[in-house]
Amino acid sequence: MSFSTVLKHLRRKNDMTQEDLADALGLTPQAVSRWETDAAFPDSSVIKKLAYLFDVTTDYLLEVDPARMQDNIRELIKAANKAEPEKAAEMLRAALVDYPRNKTIMAALSRCLYYRIYSYMDDHSDRKAKKILEEALTLTEFLYENGHEDIYTLLGMYRDAGQTERGKELLKKLPGYDNVRQEMVIQLADGEEKIRLMQENAYTLLTKLNWQVYMLSLEDETFSREQRIAMLEQMYEANRALMPDDRECFRNWQPTHIPWQLAKHYSLLGNADTAIHWLEVMRRSCTLENDRFRLKSPAFAGLELTRNGSWGTDWMLDVMGDDYFDNIRNDPRFAELYDELKNET
Question: What is the pLDDT of residues 81-96, one digit of tens each?
Fold first, then answer.
């Protein structure tokens, strides 16, 4: 095969247009077109770049030994790591001219620019600092898109470059891992927005803990009734430590289950006083709607929360009809509470 045939074959095999190949080499598409039509022949420096770019043997292009090139690149990076940062960046940029789009060299240059130069500059708002960060960011984006860089480095650069919206758009593409994604969003924020996001995240995690403890309390084959009661009461007290004194709710319907389960357990134990106490707590939680409140801890200062909706009295009447309340059904206080709820519906 002629050089033009080999070049065309390799370009198409790698899903590249003439424009893509020209861009990778820093040349014009017209030059590539002339090679593929045998109207011109590249010089030896370009032949070597092509051989490396397509990862071919010397049977295809002239005197290129891939193993030797890798050794050369390793030695180059080792020398760059020992050089002064500015000199190292020059060495690595020059290497990319000889080995276009080499991901090892690109990663080394990105790290040099971002960690060895930008991170140690006194004024990150300086024009030169911004230019260095922009170059590092361009390299890192390419590496990330090709699976050669982690997302944390890229997000850190977006944050430093003031391009947090691009970071947020990137996070939307991540599958699952909501908690991890939220932590990354927080890292991209600053000032009042960061405080608000941290508060909301802490509140969300607290709510999830509340629910998980409730779910654990249902595992009757693993925990005794006394252990389950202790779990629920401890979680409820933790909730109350944060709640305003006149609020029994924690978030939406989740904590309503805690007094419900406690009323159930104490009823089954025949402890009418405590069972009815938890039914009263449950009633207050059930009937609160669109309740706005603030948590007690200073960690949540300024964060106003809204409890939207409630289970309502119909649900509680249904619950009180279950047979595990049979032990206290004849207690006058139980009947009085039941009648009051019926009158509210």
Answer: 889 999 999 999 998 9
pLDDT of residue 344: 75
Token pair 């960011």: residue: 137
Query: What's this model's pTM, rounded to 2 decimal places?
Result: 0.49
Structure tokens at 278: 């938890």
- CA atoms of 306 and 252, how far apart (whole Å): 9
Q: Cα separations (Å) of 128 from 81, 113, 164, 328?
A: 22, 11, 21, 78
Query: Of 217, 242, 221, 237, which Cα lies nearest the Cα of 298?
Result: 242
Joined tokens for residue 67: 């193993």
Question: Helix H segments across 65-125?
Answer: 66-82, 85-98, 103-111
51: helix, coil or strand?
helix
> Which residues pair with residue 294 across a beta bridge?
304
Q: What string of DSSP letters covers 127-195?
A: HHHHHHHHHHHHHHHHHHHTTSS-HHHHHHHHHHTT-HHHHHHHHHTS-S-HHHHHHHHHHH--HHHHH
Residue 242, both tokens: 């944060």
CB-CB contact of 202 with 210 (8 Å):
no
Sole residue written with tokens 């860089």: 149
DSSP type of residue 307: E
Q: What is the pLDDT of residues 170-221, one digit of tens each?
A: 877 766 555 666 777 888 888 888 898 898 888 888 878 888 888 899 888 8
Quick: pLDDT tens for 7-60. 787 888 888 999 998 898 888 989 989 888 888 877 778 877 877 887 775 455
Q: How far is CA 50 from the centre of its chain?
A: 39
* CB contact at 8 A, 123 and 76: no
Residue 252, pLDDT score: 42
Residue 119: pLDDT over 90: no
The phi-psi region of residue 301 (left if phi > 0; otherwise alpha if psi is between -120 and 50; otherwise beta) is: beta
Backbone angles phi, psi at 305, to 5 degrees: -115, 155
CA atoms 118, 121, 122, 123: torsion sign: negative
